[in-house]
């Protein structure tokens, strides 16, 4: 039981609108933590605060601490670029680089962070695509445009691209919401396979998905963390009336 | 709901439709007339000598415009070397960091500069380059054209870089790539086909300019490759030869006009093909 991420008094704003209110929770190493809640509850903003990508948006502001292995990623001496190399992110809509080939997409993080050795890059690319369970489908067309892939393949490519920089934590923002059921199942399977090596935080609006893939679940509502517990407890024995209402489908 | 008003509406509709068709036909017809006239008048003077020989003195027939072809490429080349980096970098600034008042000012000035008569640009280059150097030069001509190119390239680059979705930028940043590298190697690359098209259209546009060159690059009857000397260009040659009293020169002017249009057409077509074939957004 090691705490990979400790979130303390996290608040986030877009301009004057407060999207997150005093969030406190711990994320276990090598576990899958699901973040659920109705649209607009702040779950996406929450994960975007964990790799400091929230602040990239105009007028966006963050206050509070996020400790990665005990080190505050929001301290003044912390370089957000280095934070993002340790905490990778997969977005809601597959976003491969459109003008790059499949190979270049996965190699981009390494190359643009200064890795020069060709065979090293090739090794990492192959390893990452294999880990993302995409190798058999793309091994013969590594130099074709990434946009020729299907949506599900593109999303697994984005996962491979994230794995390639060898982060410690992978944030996933509704990674399967734009995908068909088969692609979704493959992504979920993939999450189970890679969680031994990574700490995963996944945002989802699909409660069955949260129940299937995660060890812990946090329920967000209107920018607040209502309840955080083991997934089995949340779904069988919710501690808060609002959580129960949400997971039983009474609102949201 | 009487039938008269319906009839009236139909008549008005027909009239307006006819007027719009008529205007469109008129516009295309004028363009077609100009092009066909230039082809008819210009084609005949195009031969090998036209490309490789220098102009003959008055009274002698034959000769070519090799110096003007080379000169035009040199002057436009100088303009491109200056304007492309400045224009693209300004475009990056405006789209990526341009949410302040300074950027709005830059944008505004770029738009105003796009509308400045090209002869004024020539005067500016004359005052700031020709006068201090005490001579007309290819360099002055190139600078004059670059002043015209910069705002065009700036605005087109800005638009095209802005079209790159933020999700692409975020994907780059989320990989721990520093922002400047995300812009240079991810965003710019995504927008590159469009930017190249914009650059080519700007080149085609200034390649056909005469006024800014009249008192900057001036003219030269001989082959010159020196940047600090006056240089002949196709457009100025057309201007001089077309207004001369000698029929031979008039013919050469037509031929040059034909060649210039062909070059502009090729640049346009190449940029179109370039946009269509490469995979982009």
Count the beta strands of chain A. Answer: 10
For the sheet with most strands of chain B, the description reads: none
Architecture of the domain at 3-94 and 167-247 in chain A, according to CATH? 3-Layer(aba) Sandwich
CATH topology call of the domain at 3-94 and 167-247 in chain A:
Rossmann fold
Q: In what order do the strands lie side by side in the largest sheet of chain A?
A: 6-7-8-3-9-10
Reading the helices and strands of chain B in chain order gives: HHHHHHHHHHH
CATH architecture designation of the largest domain in chain B: Orthogonal Bundle
Helix content of chain A: 25-40%
Low-confidence segments of chain B: none
Strand content of chain A: 25-35%
Figure out the total of helices of chain B. 11
- State the end-to-end distance of chain B: 51 Å
Structural class of chain A: alpha/beta
Average pLDDT reading of chain B: 90
Helix content of chain B: over 70%
- The CATH homologous superfamily name of the domain at 3-94 and 167-247 in chain A equals P-loop containing nucleotide triphosphate hydrolases
Distance between the termini of chain A: 33 Å
How are the secondary structure elements laid out?
The complex is a heterodimer of chains A (252) and B (281).
Chain A: E1 3-14, E2 17-28, E3 32-36, H1 43-50, E4 60-68, E5 71-72, H2 80-86, E6 87-90, H3 102-112, H4 118-131, H5 135-138, H6 151-164, E7 169-173, H7 181-194, E8 199-203, H8 207-213, E9 216-221, E10 224-230, H9 231-236, H10 241-247
Parallel strand pairs in A: 3-8, 3-9, 6-7, 7-8
Antiparallel strand pairs in A: 1-2, 1-4, 4-5, 9-10
Helix pairs in contact in A: 3-4, 3-6, 4-6
Chain B: H1 3-43, H2 48-52, H3 66-97, H4 101-115, H5 118-133, H6 138-162, H7 166-174, H8 179-207, H9 211-214, H10 234-242, H11 247-277
Question: What are the main properties of this structure?
Answer:
heterodimer, A: 252 residues, Rossmann fold, 6-stranded mixed β-sheet, 4-stranded antiparallel β-sheet, 10 helices, 10 strands, 37% helix, B: 281 residues, mainly alpha, MetI-like fold, 11 helices, 77% helix, 0% strand, globular
């Amino acid at each position: 039981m090691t705490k990979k991420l400790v979130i303390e008094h996290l608040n986030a704003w877009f301009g004057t609108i407060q999207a997150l209110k005093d969030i406190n929770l711990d994320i276990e190493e090598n576990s899958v933590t699901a973040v659920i809640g109705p649209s607009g509850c702040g779950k996406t903003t929450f994960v975007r605060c964990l790799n400091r990508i929230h602040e990239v948006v105009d007028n966006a502001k963050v206050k509070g601490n996020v400790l990665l292995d005990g080190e505050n990623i929001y301290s003044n001496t912390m370089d957000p670029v280095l934070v993002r190399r340790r905490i990778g992110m997969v977005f809601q809509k597959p976003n491969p680089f459109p003008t790059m080939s499949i190979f270049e997409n996965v190699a981009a993080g390494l190359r643009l962070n200064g890795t020069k050795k060709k065979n090293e890059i090739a090794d990492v690319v192959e390893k990452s695509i294999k880990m993302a369970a995409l190798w058999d489908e793309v091994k013969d067309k590594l130099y074709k445009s990434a946009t020729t892939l299907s949506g599900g393949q593109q999303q697994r490519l984005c996962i491979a691209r994230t794995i390639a920089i060898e982060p410690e934590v992978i944030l996933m923002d509704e990674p399967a919401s734009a995908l068909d059921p088969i692609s979704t199942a493959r992504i979920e399977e993939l999450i189970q396979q890679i969680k031994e090596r990574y700490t995963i935080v996944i945002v989802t609006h699909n409660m069955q998905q949260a129940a299937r893939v995660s060890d812990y679940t946090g329920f967000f509502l209107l920018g607040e963390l209502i309840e955080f517990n083991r997934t089995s407890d949340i779904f069988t024995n919710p501690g808060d009336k609002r959580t129960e209402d949400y997971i039983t489908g009474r609102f949201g | 709901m009487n039938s008269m008003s319906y009839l009236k509406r139909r008549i008005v509709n027909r009239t307006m439709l006819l007027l719009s068709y008529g205007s469109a036909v008129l516009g295309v017809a004028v363009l077609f007339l100009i092009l066909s006239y230039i082809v008819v008048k210009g084609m005949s003077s195009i031969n090998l000598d036209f490309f490789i020989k220098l102009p003959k003195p008055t009274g002698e027939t034959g000769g070519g415009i090799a110096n003007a072809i080379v000169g035009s490429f040199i002057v436009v080349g100088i303009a491109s070397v200056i304007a492309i980096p400045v224009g693209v970098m300004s475009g990056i600034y405006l789209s990526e960091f341009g949410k302040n008042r300074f950027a709005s000012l830059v944008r505004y000035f770029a738009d105003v500069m796009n509308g400045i008569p090209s002869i004024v640009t020539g005067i500016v280059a004359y005052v700031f380059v020709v006068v201090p150097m005490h001579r007309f030069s290819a360099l002055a001509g190139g600078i004059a054209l670059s002043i015209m190119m910069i705002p065009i390239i700036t605005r087109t680059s800005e638009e095209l870089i802005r079209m790159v979705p933020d999700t692409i930028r975020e994907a780059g940043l989320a990989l721990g790539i520093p922002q400047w590298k995300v812009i240079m190697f991810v965003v710019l690359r995504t927008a590159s086909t469009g930017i190249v098209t914009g650059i080519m259209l700007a080149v085609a546009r200034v390649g056909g300019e005469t006024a800014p060159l009249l008192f900057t690059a001036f003219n030269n009857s001989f082959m010159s490759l020196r940047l600090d000397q006056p240089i002949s260009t196709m457009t100025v040659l057309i201007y001089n030869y077309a207004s001369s009293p000698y029929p031979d020169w008039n013919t050469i002017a037509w031929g040059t006009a034909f060649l210039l249009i062909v070059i502009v057409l090729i640049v346009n077509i190449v940029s179109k093909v370039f946009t269509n074939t490469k995979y982009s957004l």
